[in-house]
Specification:
Number of helices: 14
Largest sheet: 2 strands, antiparallel
Distance between the termini: 53 Å
Radius of gyration: 22 Å
Shape: globular
Strand content: under 5%
Number of domains: 1
Helix content: 55-70%
Length: 355
């Protein structure tokens, strides 16, 4: 009886969407490593990867093959089960946040509305924060289970850095929620329909520029990206929390970092830059076939994501690494007060407009 009540088409649709998102996430993570090296080469007047395939496009496959076939080493003094669980947990949490992101506009096929969002939950932003908070446990478990003092110090740094910058990030989003009135990412995207309406910009970036700036800086810290890559500070910690890892366990850590960068870029594009919305989309919807309208929305979304990824890479090869005391001072003495001020001003404006 229960099997008869299951909507099999809905189940197949969601499984297919999950599979596509998983493959895209892994593909972008793989080629983000190639992109990182090419961006660095351009900025340093070098060529970059050029041997494996045309323009070095097969380099990610070569790197993945190298990691896959390397010897698997587990230190004798490590806590073996937790040592294996660390990178696995880090990878799973990196992928989980993608399920609530609306990747494109909905469309109709055979009388069914197909949504390009795996799960539209009404507490989407809270879900993101919950999963992101769990992600640091993958680093903590890996660093502690390695039984190496450098790995342990690195994981402690990562945990304190994550806690410090999640506060400012959360407060910056409270200001955004005061304007949108919803935690659903789908509703937030729909409120940013198009680009210009009724004499004002619809994208939240124009309503919350300071909130976006705070969120962006905190995203760098949450991703352990330069100039906030203190947990992986080679000059002090000898590679950091994944010092004792090899083969695909190391590969999972490295891959998950780029997947996190991809998902963070998607979240920022969703919250502040309209997601799949773009200028002139209403004209395209009225004059183009449905499949072309959906494709244009997905393309616009991925253009924004790739722009953010390139920005992350540009900053990495531009700014030097902060000292740890500078990192903590920026988080607690600058970003949190700024986020609180922004929240209070936004609350006052929302209250005034409500009257």
């Amino acid at each position: 009886m229960l099997l008869m009540q299951i909507d099999w088409l809905f189940l197949i649709e969601k499984i297919g969407l999950i599979t596509i998102i998983l493959l895209i996430s892994l593909g972008i993570a793989a080629y983000a490593t190639w992109g990182e090296r090419k961006v660095a080469a351009v900025m340093q007047d070098r060529i970059g990867p050029a041997r494996a395939g045309i323009f070095g496009l097969l380099q990610p496959l070569a790197d993945g093959g190298k990691l896959f076939f390397k010897e698997e080493i587990i230190p004798q003094s490590a806590s073996k089960i937790i040592f294996v669980l660390g990178p696995a947990m880090f990878m799973v949490t990196a992928l989980m946040t993608s399920v609530i992101i609306p990747w494109g506009p909905s469309f109709e096929v055979g009388g069914r509305i197909i949504s390009l969002q795996v799960a539209d939950i009404n507490i989407g932003i809270l879900f993101i924060f919950g999963v992101v908070s769990l992600g640091v446990y993958g680093i903590m478990l890996g660093g502690w289970a390695s039984n190496n003092k450098y790995s342990l110090l690195s994981s402690i740094r990562a945990a304190s850095q994550s806690i410090s910058y999640e506060l400012a990030m959360g407060i910056s989003l409270i200001a955004l929620l005061l304007l949108t009135g919803t935690l659903s990412l789908h509703d937030i995207v729909e409120q940013q329909h198009g680009f210009w309406a009724d004499g004002y910009f619809t994208w939240n970036f124009f309503k919350q520029p300071l909130g976006f700036f705070i969120f962006l800086v905190c995203a760098f810290a949450e991703l352990n990206r330069a100039p906030f890559d203190l947990p992986e500070c080679e000059s002090e910690l000898n590679m950091g929390f994944h010092l004792e890892y090899s083969s695909m366990k190391l590969g999972l850590y490295l891959f998950a970092e780029y997947i996190n960068m991809f998902i963070s870029s998607a979240v920022m594009a969703t919250l502040f830059f309209g997601g799949y919305n773009y200028p002139g989309m209403d004209w395209v919807s009225a004059h183009a076939p449905q499949w072309l309208f959906v494709l244009s929305g997905v393309t616009a979304f991925f253009v924004k994501i790739i722009a953010f990824i390139l920005f992350f890479m540009l900053i990495r090869w531009t700014l030097p690494r902060f000292r740890y005391d500078q990192l903590m001072k920026l988080g607690w003495k600058s970003l949190i007060p700024l986020a609180l001020i922004n929240m209070l001003i936004t609350g006052g404006i929302a209250l005034w407009l409500g009257k």
